[in-house]
């Protein structure tokens, strides 16, 4: 029979980390799942407080990868790690394509560092910054939300579509039952802003989002607008 022995130092580490995980300081870093959040740039840039770089991308981009607790609340600012500039250099080109800063006032690197400080640090010590960035790049490449929607005749042309049809199209793409969306209220119409899918702790498996009664700006609306480029006049 084959048995597996932990090296003594690892055992020591496990004991220590179990104890420290029970302490008040480390409780923030125990996440239950990861939220992979996509953003529809045309809606994000409708917001009056937002000045976007031009041209505005006509595809979903990542907003972030956010560790969350069992109830679906994201954990924030779990520890201080300083600059992740060296890790960013390694993946800069890929990150610029899938996770750009849309705001004209924020460079990509400022945005990535901010996201890491706020959300990314909550994956420690399960993942390090390189794993975190790799995971985002590899996960987002697996799904094509825009294709999933357009192939169901849901086009980003400023028309509104039944929310259940939108969700069904996305579920078909990500292969799970429950997802979340957020919306922006612009001139009394509700626009699709974000799509949240949930990943397991390792980030390798899509899981159902926790059932939640938060409306995330979408109200109880049965129709949502899929905004076209430059809807803001
Ligand atoms: C947007 O596309 C849908 C699906 O093809 C179509 O039914 C709708 O009329 C279009 N809306 C506009 C404003 O062109
Ligand atoms: C939403 O759920 C929470 C806890 O699950 C509950 O306390 C709250 O009353 C609910 N809110 C609404 C509007 O149903």
UniProtKB/TrEMBL annotation:
Residues 1-20 form the signal peptide. Pfam families: Ribonuclease_T2. GO terms for molecular function: hydrolase activity; ribonuclease T2 activity; RNA binding. The keyword Signal applies. SUPFAM superfamilies: Ribonuclease Rh-like. Its EC number is 3.1.27.1. PROSITE patterns: RNASE_T2_1, RNASE_T2_2. Keywords: Endonuclease, Hydrolase, Nuclease, Signal. GO terms for biological process: RNA catabolic process. Gene3D superfamilies: Ribonuclease T2-like. GO terms for cellular component: extracellular region. Belongs to the RNase T2 family. This is Ribonuclease T(2). It comes from Handroanthus impetiginosus. The lineage of its organism: Eukaryota, Viridiplantae, Streptophyta, Embryophyta, Tracheophyta.
């Amino acid at each position: 029979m084959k048995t597996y022995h932990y090296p003594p130092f690892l055992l020591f580490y496990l004991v220590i980390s179990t104890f420290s995980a029970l302490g008040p300081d480390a409780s923030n870093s125990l996440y239950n799942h990861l939220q992979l959040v996509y953003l529809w740039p045309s809606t994000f840039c409708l917001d009056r407080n937002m000045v976007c770089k031009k041209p505005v991308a006509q595809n979903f981009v990542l907003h972030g990868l956010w560790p969350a607790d069992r109830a679906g609340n994201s954990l924030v600012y779990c520890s201080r790690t300083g600059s992740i500039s060296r890790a960013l250099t390694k993946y800069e080109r890929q990150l610029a394509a899938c996770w750009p800063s849309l705001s004209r006032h924020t460079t990509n690197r400022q945005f990535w560092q901010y996201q890491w400080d706020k959300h990314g640090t909550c994956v420690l010590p399960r993942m390090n910054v390189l794993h975190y960035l790799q995971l985002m790049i590899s996960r987002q490449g697996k799904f094509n939300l825009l294709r999933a929607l357009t192939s169901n005749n849901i086009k980003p042309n400023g028309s509104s579509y039944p929310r259940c049809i939108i969700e069904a199209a996305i579920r078909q793409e990500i292969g799970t039952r429950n997802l979340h969306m957020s919306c922006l209220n612009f001139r009394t119409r509700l626009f699709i802003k974000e799509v949240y899918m949930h990943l397991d702790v390792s980030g390798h498996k899509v899981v159902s989002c926790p059932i939640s009664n938060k409306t995330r700006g979408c109200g109880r609306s049965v129709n949502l607008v899929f905004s076209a480029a430059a809807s803001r006049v």
